[in-house]
Write a structure and sequence with these properties.
Chain lengths: 110, 119
């Protein structure tokens, strides 16, 4: 049950676009279209931003989008806003019928 | 609206036990699978356990297997996490979360309950 690999930090200026990667294996990210992404502001519970690789829950801005290629999934945020500054986590279902999270990425809006 | 409220956290000595509860409202609890996820101080999210909507299947992270037990009582709309043989590295905020129908994503989360394991 190794954690998915995410960059520790990314940054961008307001209005710019950023992408956060999430690398797993053929037993998790590469096996299922079950990757989800969560946003967590300090002191708050995580919030679902993307599910099933590319889908946005109701109420999530269309500035957020997801994709996957092989064992790597990605979260893209366009038109960065100050409120996007947060920690982001990816997650995937696994062939062991468990779930696994990424180590998290701290997004800084410069 | 969907509401998940965790309780039962506290300070406990290593080797002791604690039972966490997660009370659900605003949805039909018995039709949803549930997870426990934890977050150690200053660290990332760590998946802990899953239980199927009907309680017929469950699974655990290797770090808690054999020590923690997830269960549910749908008559009480409540999810549980029995934690035995607690260790210092079990110190964390423990969140319960609902599995979104037809996906493996966690679409609703509680605010968490804090567990501190210390002598």
């Amino acid at each position: 049950q190794s954690a998915l690999t995410q960059p520790a930090s990314v940054s961008g200026s307001p209005g710019q676009s950023i992408t956060i990667s999430c690398t797993g294996t053929s037993s998790d990210v590469g096996r299922y279209n079950s990757v989800s992404w969560y946003q967590q502001h300090p002191g708050e519970a995580p919030k679902l931003m993307i599910y099933a690789v590319t889908n946005r829950p109701s109420g999530v801005s269309n500035r957020f989008s997801g994709s996957k290629s092989g064992n790597t999934a990605s979260l893209s945020i366009s038109g960065l806003q100050a409120e996007d500054e947060a920690d982001y986590y990816c997650s995937s279902y696994t062939t062991s019928n468990t779930a696994v999270f990424g180590g998290g990425t701290k997004l800084t809006v410069l | 609206q969907v509401l998940l409220v965790e309780s039962g956290g506290g300070v406990v000595q290593p080797g002791r036990s604690l039972r966490l509860s997660c009370t659900a409202s605003g949805f039909t609890f018995r039709t949803y699978g549930m997870h426990w996820v934890r977050q150690a101080p200053g660290k990332g999210l760590e998946w802990v356990a899953i239980i199927w909507y009907d309680g017929t299947n469950e699974n655990y992270a290797d770090s808690v297997k054999g020590r923690f037990t997830i269960s549910r009582d749908s008559s009480k709309n409540t999810l549980y996490l029995q934690m035995n043989s607690l260790r210092v590295d079990d110190t964390a905020i423990y969140y319960c979360a609902r599995i979104a129908t037809g996906t493996y994503s966690l679409d609703s989360w509680g605010q968490g309950t804090v567990v501190t394991v210390s002598s």
